[in-house]
Design brief:
The C terminus is likely disordered. Strand 12 and strand 13 form a beta hairpin. The strands form 3 sheets. Strands 1, 2, 8, 9, 10 and 11 form a 6-stranded antiparallel sheet that branches. The protein has a 5-stranded antiparallel sheet with strand order 6-3-5-4-7, sandwiched between helices. Strands 12-13 form a two-stranded antiparallel sheet. By secondary structure, the protein is of the alpha+beta class. Helix 1 crosses helix 4 and helix 2 runs antiparallel to helix 3. It is built from 4 helices and 13 strands. 26% of the residues lie in helices and 29% in strands.
C-alpha cells in the first residue's frame, strides 16, 4: 500500500492506493454489469476537474481574473458552430499572446474553455468562452476581444485568495456539454507551472490518513471497487502558505511557536 502527494500551490492532495510489484493498482473484484460505465464516466469527469483545478492553483492567485467572452449579434453568425467558435478563440489567443509578450516581456499564462451549456438552466446556451488570465493581461484582452466579439461582453471577476479553486474548475467544466468522448474540455498555454508529484512511500493501512500540518481539510473520498472493497483513499487539504519542494520532498511551513508572556 503506497501513498503519494500532489502539490499545487497551497493545495496538497494525498492519495493512497494498492500497488503491485509492477507499480500497477491491485486488481479489482468481479465487475457488476450496468454500473461500471457510469462510474467510469463520473470518475473521468472528476479527474478532469481536479486536473484543471491544479493548473489554476499553480499559476493564478488573488487579483488574477476569470473572464467571460461573448459575441454581439453581428459577430454571432448563424453558421457559428462549436468548432468555428474554438477557431475564433484560437485566433484571439494568438494575438493576445503576441501583444502581451511585447508589452510585458512575459509569456502568457491562460486557461480556457469554449462553453455551450448553462449549468444554471441545465440547457444549451449561446456559444461563449471562459478564460483565466493574469491581472496584467485583462485590459489587453478586453480591447482585442472587440475585434472578435464586437460589442459582446467581456466580463471580469477577480480571483480571491482562497487558494483552492476547485469550485471554479468545476464551473468551467460544467459549461461544456455533449462533446465527443476523449475531447479535452479545457486547455491551457504551454510552459505553465504544473503540479508536483512526490515519490510514493509505503504506508501501513488505508484508514489512518491525517491532514498535513496546519491545514484545512477540503475533501475526503474513499475509492471502492465494484464489490464495495476499499482500494484507495483521497484527501485534499489547503495550507496557509505554499509549501516548498526540495529534492522531491515536501517542506511544510515551520510550526509557529507561542510567545511567552
Amino acid at each position: 500500500m503506497m501513498e503519494y502527494k500532489i502539490i499545487s500551490g497551497r493545495v496538497i492532495e494525498t492519495k493512497r492506493s494498492w500497488f503491485s510489484m509492477n507499480d500497477c493498482f491491485k486488481p479489482r473484484g468481479t465487475r457488476r454489469a450496468g454500473s461500471t460505465s457510469e462510474k467510469k464516466i463520473r470518475a473521468n469527469e472528476k479527474s478532469s476537474i481536479r486536473n484543471l483545478a491544479r493548473v489554476i492553483n499553480c499559476n493564478f492567485e488573488a487579483g488574477d481574473v476569470f473572464a467571460t467572452l461573448s459575441y454581439d449579434g453581428d459577430h454571432y453568425q448563424p453558421d457559428l458552430d462549436y468548432e468555428k467558435a474554438k477557431e475564433q478563440l484560437k485566433k484571439f489567443r494568438a494575438k493576445l499572446r503576441k501583444i502581451y509578450a511585447r508589452e510585458t516581456g512575459n509569456a502568457l499564462k491562460a486557461i480556457w474553455v469554449t462553453a455551450n451549456w448553462s449549468p444554471h438552466k441545465d440547457a444549451p446556451t449561446r456559444l461563449h468562452h471562459h478564460m483565466v488570465l493574469p491581472e496584467d493581461a485583462t485590459e489587453i484582452a478586453r480591447v482585442i476581444w472587440q475585434e472578435f466579439g464586437g460589442a459582446g461582453t467581456f466580463k471580469m471577476e477577480g480571483l480571491d485568495g482562497r487558494g483552492d479553486h476547485t469550485d471554479l474548475a468545476s464551473y468551467m467544466s460544467e459549461n461544456v456539454h455533449g462533446r465527443p468522448a476523449g475531447e479535452n474540455k479545457w486547455s491551457c498555454c504551454r510552459g505553465m507551472d504544473r503540479p508536483i508529484y512526490t515519490e510514493p512511500v509505503e504506508v501501513a493501512d488505508m484508514e489512518d490518513m491525517q491532514p498535513d500540518y496546519d491545514s484545512t481539510i477540503k475533501d475526503v473520498e474513499e475509492i471502492r471497487d465494484d464489490d464495495g472493497q476499499l482500494i484507495g483513499k483521497y484527501m485534499r487539504c489547503l495550507l496557509k502558505e505554499r509549501p516548498r519542494v526540495r529534492g522531491g520532498q515536501v517542506v511544510l511551513p515551520k510550526k509557529q511557536t507561542r510567545r511567552r508572556t
